[in-house]
Design a protein that fits this description.
This protein has 182 residues and is an alpha/beta fold. 21% of the residues lie in helices and 22% in strands. A four-stranded parallel sheet has the order 7-6-5-8, with helices on one face. Strands 1-2 form a two-stranded antiparallel sheet. The chain has a two-stranded antiparallel sheet with strand order 3-4. It starts with 12 loop residues before the first strand and ends in an 8-residue tail after the last helix.
Length: 182
């Protein structure tokens, strides 16, 4: 995680949870505090209510965030991506988890699908991760059946969902897109 410049993946306006509730922090108004939050081992909320809540208001529920760095490191340590495997990242958002993972994967034998419900995230990700030719990008809504979105049975070895706030589909709907031995 030390190689990942978190400020590249976190918006200038964020919220953090404190005892009194969520607190808004703007990079232009509090640059040192913002940077401290971005590099702290804590969750940083980057969106409420699917973007319907406008800055600096606090919405009903967080819908996008940057994970705690220690959680990402633990997940990457546990993730056993081997040569030739196909990986689907659901809810990739700004790409913070992706940035930590892609350099660890064998480029010549990995197929990686970066997905999110928002096409705006995908456009930014394509530019950001252009140096990784094994990554493809697509809109996927996890509240809809994977099969109805063109994900065929056994098409992935690993499904990763690090920053997803919406409950994923039932396991019996996701499981068919994963190779049975995975």
């Amino acid at each position: 995680m030390a190689r990942v410049r978190r400020e590249d993946f976190i918006p200038d306006r964020v919220w953090i949870e404190e005892e009194s509730g969520y607190v808004a922090i703007d990079r232009s108004e509090e640059p040192h505090r913002w940077e401290g939050v971005v590099y702290a081992n804590r969750v940083v909320v980057t969106q409420f209510d699917d973007g319907d809540t406008m800055w600096p208001a606090v919405g009903r529920r967080p819908t996008c965030s940057a994970s705690m760095p220690s959680a990402v490191v633990g997940m990457l340590d546990a993730l056993d991506v081997r040569q030739g495997q196909r990986v689907l990242e659901i809810g990739a958002g700004t790409g913070g988890t992706t940035a930590a993972l892609l350099p660890l994967l064998p480029a010549e034998s990995t197929d990686y699908v970066y997905s999110d419900i928002s096409s705006a995230f995908l456009a930014a990700a394509e530019e950001r991760f252009a140096r990784f030719p094994f990554v493809s990008y697509r809109v996927i809504d996890i509240e809809r059946s994977p099969q109805m979105q063109g994900l065929s049975a056994g098409s992935f070895d690993i499904v990763l969902a690090a920053n997803v706030y919406v409950l994923p589909p039932p396991a019996n709907e996701v499981k068919p897109v994963v190779v049975p031995s995975s």
